[in-house]
Amino acid sequence: MKPRFLTGLLSLLMPAMVMAGEYDLTVDRVEIDTGDFVKEGIGYNGASPGPVMRFKEGENVKINVTNNLDEMTSIHWHGLILPFDQDGVPGISFPGIKPGETFTYEFPIQQAGTYWFHSHSGFQEPDGAYGAIVIEPEKREPFRYDREYVVQLTDKHPHSGDRIMRNLKMIPDYYNREQQTVGEFFSDASKNGLMNTIRDRMAWGDMRMMKADVEDLQGFTGLINGKGPEQNWTGLFEPGERIRLRFINSSAMTYFDIRITGLDMTVVQADGNNVQPVNVDEFRIGVAETYDVIVHPKDEQAYTIFAESMGRSGYARATLAPEEGMEAAVPQLRDPARLTMADMSGMPGMDHGNMAGMDHGDMDMNSSEGMSGMDHSNMEGMDHGSMAMGKGGQNDPFYAKGSGLVPTAANGGKFLSYADLKAQDPLYEDREPTREIELRLTGNMERYTWSINGVKYEDADPIRLKYGERVRFKFVNETMMTHPMHLHGMWSILDVGADQWNPIKHTVSVQPGTTVYMETEVDEPGQWAFHCHLSYHAAAGMFRKVIVEGGPESTQAKTDVIAKDGGEV
Amino acid sequence: MYDNYYEPEEISVKPGETVRFVVENKGNLVHEFNVGTPDMHEAHREEMMMMVEHGVIQGGKLNHDMMNMDMGNGHSMKHDDPNSVLLEPGQSKEVVWKFSDKGNIEFACNVPGHYQAGMYGEVNFE
Amino acid sequence: MSCIRSIVAVSFLASIGVSTAVTAQEMISDTTARKQPLTTWGVQFEEFEYRYSDDDEELGVWNADAFYGTDDFKVRLLTTGEYEIEEQAYETLENQLVGQIPISKFFDAKAGVRFDTPEGPDRTYAVLGVAGLAPQWFEIDANLYVSKDGDTSAELDAEYELLFTNYWILAATLDASVAFSEDEEIGVGKGLVSTETGLRLSYDLIDRAFSPYVGVVHERKYGDSADLAEADGGGTEDWFAVIGARIAF
């Protein structure tokens, strides 16, 4: 399916009646009060997070951005399809916005859904420079709701972004307070046996890697819409209403597992694109991802929105309630996450001969749960990876088999997997990719350097793509950390094995020890950033420039082609 | 039926009236048109969940062989009750239903996720 | 209705399409800081303490290092000193300036100079060393020194940390030095010269920036070096109680 906004020849003859909206944003130094601490940071229109920008699909927007800082700044519109020089990445899209300067972004809105925007300069984003984008669709959405809220998460830290980067380079486990202690040695020994525990510790010690290496940055206060757990952002509702919650993960480094005790959620959008609705009890939102869910609270009570960090070191919390001031119980954090040898399997040269029998304590032996009573001989043709098993993620194909990071729902219910995401309205026709590009996600934790194919951005050549091709990207995660890979300007069609129903995303999480494929229709000329969205990884080298060579011959010719193909209006 | 909503989204009937619904699936996904009370729909949703788990409903297609498969306890997953139809994209079928008494009746699609996304309609009794 | 919006979008896009094609020719190159090697710096005091010996000796001791540079090349200043409080003199005062480069995943190589300026004769050495993280989490720093007069010696420093909790950390250190030729003037005999072992229990009070500790340190001289020390009227073995803080910023 060609981009739906290009129609037949006829339309070019009609006079242009352009819908346009003009918006103003200022970039300012602001004070951020998390409830735990107060820190100076950066915000938009005097606050962090910045305002919710509300656009309409089809309008042409003009955004005047005034830089009131004493350093360069920029704004990147995350997930928006637009001309490359409006993408807001200094050095790739444009030179940046000088102090005191006002830069005007101008581009058409070619999509609908929930997105966000943030600075792409230095560590301004972790320091507070982020906001939300809500785009109203032209057509009716494939779901109904009575009210909506933006639920934007971040991991605000008492240290500034520059300081955090410096600390991580000097002492890579500077912020990790979930490391294995003597106490854990003894409790593991009593659970798994002394010899097994000693062998386990020695196996990891040999690699000089820590099982506890799940979250680089701990000690943050989780914020929802700028409010910490004590400040408790509250969304009001009337019992019986359907509420659309637009979850945006605007954090620097943190994956959150989100649940609302007492309510199940129906996921209807991922990364701004409609997905076939999936009912879940809990979902994991990666850095830079968005998920829109519908909840239907029927009782006159408060509900806690609980966002627990993936490594269980911190959390963010908000409330849905019929009245201000109402609160529900806030759950306790679960035990710290621990990697297993399975998560290490991506690393080249791992000798697995000695690894058997290592991690009995971590391996959950329940993988056969739920399968009793089914006659498997008739089950051919079933895609087990995408079967909604009604149970948590034991069999999540997007995690290494036996991974320590496989999420399970706190209430024992369904945890969303990438395998559950299917596009509701595919944007592109399914076709064979024209070529495959392998990108090994690499890094050295001790030196805190992160790279792609072993090469940091500073030493790397750009990735060159040709306009019109369909590239299949193969991400091979050779590290033991999860990386949310974000390609600017063009959609990432994540391969979940559903052919034309593969979901359309802008940020793809690659778990340790796994290989993930996504395809991109190269249909936007120019040059684009492509990077891991963990702020300190991107800065440490896990970044690339993508150059799209060529462009449409002329829009006239392209339109001819559409008309011939009987393209949709 | 569209993805994922009905047109119209509410209807008015007289108690005792018999209505013939001509249901057409104009969406890209499999949808259901089912007349019943919210409790019935909730129970039926569990059954539909099982159908998805067993691969009977696969996005925009129905696996008819799977549907007729005997689950081993005398049940099959055939969708042939008089108050509902399960349609692939482009299919059309009729449901004839007599609304005997006033009650809390809705028409709904119980394909997992669809009801929660808003695919239901109200039956108002005059 | 949607037809009109599409029309509008097309017309607008037609104009954008043209301008995009033009700007595609003028794509900028990345001259921002992101394209430059990440330059970083840091200062750490592994030891900053007061030592009290069983001989009533009181020392102020530090062992610090500051670095500046990129992943591929760092300049480091390593400084260590032992200040005899009563005598108001430096028993030890060593300052090293080295350049350091990565040679493997976990190890760096370094080369530079070391200036010893304690109470007594001064010495200058060329330094060649290897530093990094050995398997099972031992921090290793091994150095070879060559003095202006051709006296060669070597030092091996090893450290291991045990986490009682994520804030209470027990650090064990071993510094051993070996001389390949005698340097009588400064009390160095051939062979194993001395060892210093330490056990320090610290608490991370302010992040990893300030971690006060208490501990015990054992110093001992061996062989010819021990003889030289005794001949001078000094001791060959000392036990110290120490109190101090690790500092990093």
From TrEMBL, chain C:
Keyword annotations: Signal
Biological classification of the source: Bacteria, Pseudomonadati, Pseudomonadota, Gammaproteobacteria, Pseudomonadales
Signal peptide bounds: 1-24
Taxonomy, superkingdom: Bacteria
GO molecular function, one term: copper ion binding
Name this polypeptide is given: Copper resistance protein B
Keyword Transit peptide: no
CC terms in the record's Gene Ontology section: cell outer membrane
Protein's GO biological process: intracellular copper ion homeostasis
